[in-house]
Amino acid sequence: MQALWWDLAERTAELIVRALWVLRVDGAERVPRTGPVIFISNHQSYLDPVVNGVATRDRQVGFLAKVELFGFSPFGRLIQSFGAIPLKERSDMAAMRAAIGELQTGRCIVVYPEGGRSDDGEVGVFHRGVALIVRRTKVPVVPMAVEGPYRVWPSSRKLPRPIGRLSVIVGEPIPAETLLADEDDGVDRMRQSVLALQAKLRAREAKRG
What residues does 26 pair with on adjacent strands? Predict the structure, then answer.
């Protein structure tokens, strides 16, 4: 039932997004079809979970989400039914354990290592929480990048703009062993992967004009 609910919600969200904005997804074939996965992405807007969810296609994912989003009870129950995990602060060990538990059961999670929405659309500093999850689970990391959500719905606006283009791209999986061999447990490697993907999206948008 959980899988069916996820499929229904994902398809409905995709239809709504595509009806309102132009959405392009690249690299969806790189999403592993089986096994636990940590997806990471830059974070530009409240639209990101929907855009990232469209990119992961049939893989049900849980999101680490700020606890404030659960404050409005109907919305909080809704996102919790999709597998959202409340995050009180960057070092919230209860949220980390919940995310690790999801991965240990073979499911997937999406992490925004910046810890919050970007104020300018640029990729900020990555925090070490995602490295802790990688170290504990030895699960591969699949980088993603979004471009456009910041222009459509920046943190300075209460509601999104009614028109715009949204893009998401999926990168190649990075084995946990590769990340953990780095001095910083792969934090910088993960950030550079997301930056490179965002650069591809921006180069393509520049050609379109």
Answer: 169
Q: Which residue has the tokens 């392009």?
A: 24
User: What one-letter code names the amino acid at 7?
Assistant: D
- Tokens 């980390």 sit on residue: 96
Q: What are phi and psi of 154, to 5 degrees?
A: -70, 165
What angle, 0 to 180 degrees and rounded to 10, lies between the N-to-C axes of helices 48-56 and 2-20? 120
pTM of the model: 0.90
Q: Are 147 and 201 in contact (CB under 8 A)?
A: yes
Which pair of tokens denotes residue 177? 């062993």
Q: For every one of its 209 residues, what pLDDT tens digit does the chain have, with 9 covering 90 and above?
A: 566 766 777 788 889 999 999 999 999 999 999 999 999 999 999 999 889 999 997 788 888 777 776 666 676 676 666 667 777 766 678 888 889 998 999 999 999 999 889 999 999 999 999 999 999 999 999 999 999 999 999 999 999 999 999 999 999 999 999 999 999 999 999 999 999 999 999 999 888 76
143 in Cβ contact with 94 (< 8 Å): no
204: tokens are 């393509």
- Fold category of 2-208 in CATH: Glycerol-3-phosphate (1)-acyltransferase (3.40.1130)
Quick one: tokens of 26?
């690249």
Q: In sequence order, what DSSP letters do the residues of 83-133 get, joined into one string?
A: T-EEESSTT-HHHHHHHHHHHHTT-EEEE-TTSS--SSSS--PPPTHHHHH
Give residues with Cβ within 8 angstroms of 56, minimum separation 6. 28, 31, 39, 108, 110
